[in-house]
Amino acid sequence: MTLTGKHYLAGTWMSGDSTFMSTPASGPAREFSVGTPALVDSAARAAEAAFESYGYSSRTERAALLDRIADEIDARGDAITEIGSQETGLPEARLIGERGRTVGQLRLFARHIEAGDYLDRKHDTALPQRTPLPRPDLHLMQRPIGPVAVFGASNFPLAFSVAGGDTAAALAAGCPVVVKGHGGHPGTSELVAQAIAAAIEACGVHPGVFSLIQGGARDVGQALVQHPLIRAVGFTGSLGGGRALFDLCAQRPEPIPFFGELGSVNPMFLLPHAVTARGATLAAGWVGALTMGAGQFCTNPGLAIVIGGPEADAFVAAATEALAAVGAQTMLTDGIADAYRSGACRLQQSDGVRDLLTTSCDLREAAPCLFETTGKAWLANETLGEEVFGPLGLVVRVSAFDEMLALARALQGQLTCTLQLDAADNAQARALLPILERKAGRVLANGFPTGVEVSDTMVHGGPYPASTNFGATSVGTMSIRRFLRPVCYQNIPADLLPADLQVCA
Ligand code: NAP
Q1: What's the pLDDT tens digit per position in 433-476?
Q2: Of the residues 18, 33, 238, 299, which should be mutated to test ligand 1's pocket, given the most ligand atoms within 8 Å of the CB?
Q3: pLDDT digit string, tens, across residues 99-126
Q4: Distance from the CA of 127 to the CA of which of 118, 279, 365, 494 falls in 20 to 30 A?
Q5: What's the mean pLDDT in 292-300?
């Protein structure tokens, strides 16, 4: 596969005014065109033009496009894996798995829209004789919102990037997409864009339905979220970046929804009987989840809360030993490795925090770190509840179950909360669950939150700062709702109703 280093703008590969060099973890640095607000404007206009046909296309046509994109990605599988691994430092096996998830979710959305339940079609038939007022004929159906902006995530170069979950959900809904590629993997982005371009051509869809503008400059993302033709934004990334873009969306003359998936420490509550019965096993499992993918998962369980005592000592000792055996791993970008070191340093210098394990390493690498603190110190310092993106764990030893409850109540919004429990812990779990379900989009027992199932039942979101919109998920079929809005059709003649309503008129 040949890389052009260009943007893909509604069917045409285009250069900008300047270039940037990629910074791969291995392999050659490559030259890519820097995005510009002018390119964003052209892409958004083309997306709006495409919406005139694509927004009214049949579900069968859109399902065929999604299936074809999946096929075209698979056809380029080896090349995507090779450059993806070079650019991100992620192992090839991980990228092969992630490609499976990516094409799997494209095909899942194809089947989801074919089934049609997502349209929420409802009909209140007219009651002309009703007194005191007659009832009109009322149809309800979900309609696509228009062009959607997607920010490729650094930590999922395939499953949450150019043809990732946000793009799949938007295209399934009937919304054209303008992607702002992540600067950490521009070559991977281009190869996936080539796959989408081939699918668009094969399916005869309006070319404006998809554009990829590479990054390289901050004004690209800002211009994208502020463009008047963009109707919603899907984003996965940092709290700072997400918040800045969210605020820009809210400040527009016509504000639009910003679906940001930001930070989370994914607390894990270790209940006493479980710790006594299997503390060492829990420690080993925790260390595995904490260090998977160099800890660069939104669902990384960075916080473990345990009641102090000999069982907690044994859990901490086992976790420290297991973590010490895990070496340094390559991070996605130099910036992320740098942010990891700063985050570890911040924890190390916090009052009441004790080092259990810290090691230094090279610029693009991260070595696992483990710290511990008390419930009292954690409750007194809200920065201890902030995400450090990477293989870092913080154990909070609480003095008693009441302090565990206090800590649960003090948590910020989370993507996930985990309970490790045995049957004899049920009374305490029953007290924690009503608190935790108000804090997180997903509550789980006796497992680890990494490894997010893509399904009808998944919720990947949560109260702020886990996400900027706690009513939404960015993973699973329900994520399509972000790009739909309900329309009520009152007394509209049957033959003028949208085709999807005519079948039930
Ligand atoms: P990021 O810095 O938030 O960047 C994500 C995307 O947003 C990039 O395309 C970036 O463009 C753009 N962006 C960020 N701030 C912007 C602003 N003020 N104006 C316009 N565009 C802006 O995230 P990242 O590069 O993926 O990683 C940095 C940190 O984010 C990590 O260290 C980690 O803390 C966090 N992170 C969290 C998650 C999670 O799931 N919770 C996932 C990934 C990363 P440019 O690249 O052009 O700046």
Answers
A1: 999 999 999 999 999 999 999 999 999 999 999 999 999 999 99
A2: 238
A3: 999 999 999 999 999 999 999 999 999 9
A4: 118
A5: 96
Reported pTM: 0.97
Residue with structure tokens 């901490």? Answer: 316
Distance 265 CA to ligand 1 centre (A): 17
Instruction: Sketch the domain layout of the chain as residue ranges.
Output: 32-128+135-262+467-502, 267-445
At the top level of CATH, which class does the domain 267-445 belong to? alpha beta
End-to-end CA distance of the chain: 49
Is the previous residue joined to 498 through a cis bond, with omega within 30 degrees of 0? no
Which of 98, 190, 261, 403 does the annotation list as catalytic?
261
**Cis bond upstream, residue 463 (ω within 30):** no
Q: Which of 175, 249, 298, 417 is catalytic?
A: 298
Structural fold of domain 32-128+135-262+467-502: Aldehyde Dehydrogenase; Chain A, domain 1 (3.40.605)
| Catalytic residue status for 261 | yes
What are the C-alpha distances in Å from 478 to residues 75, 117, 134, 461, 468?
28, 11, 35, 11, 16
